Amino acid sequence: MATYEDLQPYxxxxxxxxxxxxxxxxxxxxxLTSSGTSAGERKLMPTIEDELNRRQLLYSLQMPVMxxxxxxxxxxxxxHFLFVKSETKTPGGxxxxxxxxxxxxxxxxxxxxxDAYNNYTSPTAAILCADAFQSMYAQxxxxxxxxxxxxxxxxxxxxxxxxxIRFLQxxxxxxxxxxxxxxxxxxxxxxxxxxxVAGILRADPExxxxxxxxxxxxxxxxxxxxxxxxxxxxxxxxxxxxxxxIPTLKYYSGGLPMACTMYASSECYFxxxxxxxxxxxxxxxxxxxxxxxxxxxxxxxAAASGGDASQLVDLARVEVGxxxxxxxxxxxxxxxxxxxxxxxxxxxxxxxPQFRFVRRKNVLLSIESDKTDEAELQRAVxxxxxxxxxxxxxxxxxxxxxxxxxxxxxxVIYWELLAKGPAGxxxxxxxxxxxxxxxxxxxxNTVYRQSRVADGSIGPLEIRVVRPGTFEExxxxxxxxxxxxxxxxxxxxxxxxxxxxxxxxxxVSSHFSPALPHWTPGQRSDSD
Length: 528
What we know:
This is Indole-3-acetic acid-amido synthetase GH3.8. There is one protein chain. This protein is of the alpha+beta class. The chain contains 16 helices and 20 strands. It has an 8-stranded antiparallel sheet with strand order 9-10-11-16-15-14-12-13, with helices on one face.
């Protein structure tokens, strides 16, 4: 089995211009850059021309599956916020860009035939505009102009759709002005975008009045269905780390269902959710065996921590209920490559196994012997944030760090709060936030609680509340350093000093756990 670090010297040779068949007999056509927030650096994934056809095939299966559950999606349009990122070139002259940028810039997308099931409100020129503001503005404006036609609203990740709603909150006045006048703001300068929008934008004082009426109230609950009344569902990924956005999306959408349709990565596209309208907690993906060769490393085997390939099982031999690390062999030359995703087998579609995405394999937080992963931190935040509901507040975004400058070290959780009630976030008092700290500790594993109670090797958990908009600044910072707007995911743990400095400079209050969590010596620890 191989990790990215094992392949890096070969990838570097290809990137530097070596055209010999190093990883694959097929020539590498370009590099796909992985998410800027995975493992701290952008990985270069080799790809070949044929892969576009395979990706296109998976895309083409999405709506036929959806049509089984939500018929009539060919009678309207999709408001999907889609973005490209400016690409770079490797020293050897190959393009290096995110997988979605590669797809949107391909002829498969740009010259696609009309498809009533994938009829977007956004003009292609707006999607292909590399300036994030101009692209978002044009897409939002065109979405508003065609509000009666919109049957689904989406983005790649849940966080992207929330960013679009935040954009509407900040720019609705200018958008309404443009709709009233029938002319586009001079802030959008890209000629191709202006031309594309001119084909859609018409003076519509009635629509401008509606936008002003809905957005000026200060009440954003159900805003998606208030502005786009025919919306049947949200098309967003809300599995894995994105699950924490579900309550906020429900708030803004008035409780619309959320469809997670596809499971994919920069390395390879994997499969589809054949029950796209299921509850987000029940999402399972059916892997398509034509996308790559799939193998699975049992997480409960000794090989899971080492590199023993003899423990690998293939797609036909996985067992229901067990967790596996995904290992793939791709057409582009990744051989027995460890993706780093942990999947659990939930059942079968005919004979094809179906998998729930559990987590990324890497441990998130650790002070000493404790090991807290992303799913566990997510559960702890969810449990603690329930204490905010009576106060009309919710956690809209979070991240963490293992703070080791003091002895003992402790977990620091950064929370950005969304005030839903008229009283706003100010209604959440010191005592409530301290109880949130303790509630999080109660939800963490027994090794953590033993370290707190018996060993004293971990200090009280701290919640630092940051001011609204902080996580948007964090994203802007990541994008300025080369992260892709499409693939950006808020890091659930931060270690990079400038990011910690940014977060700490936005803290408005700090709260510590007021007591020790429960722990008794009789409990088995996860490391026993």
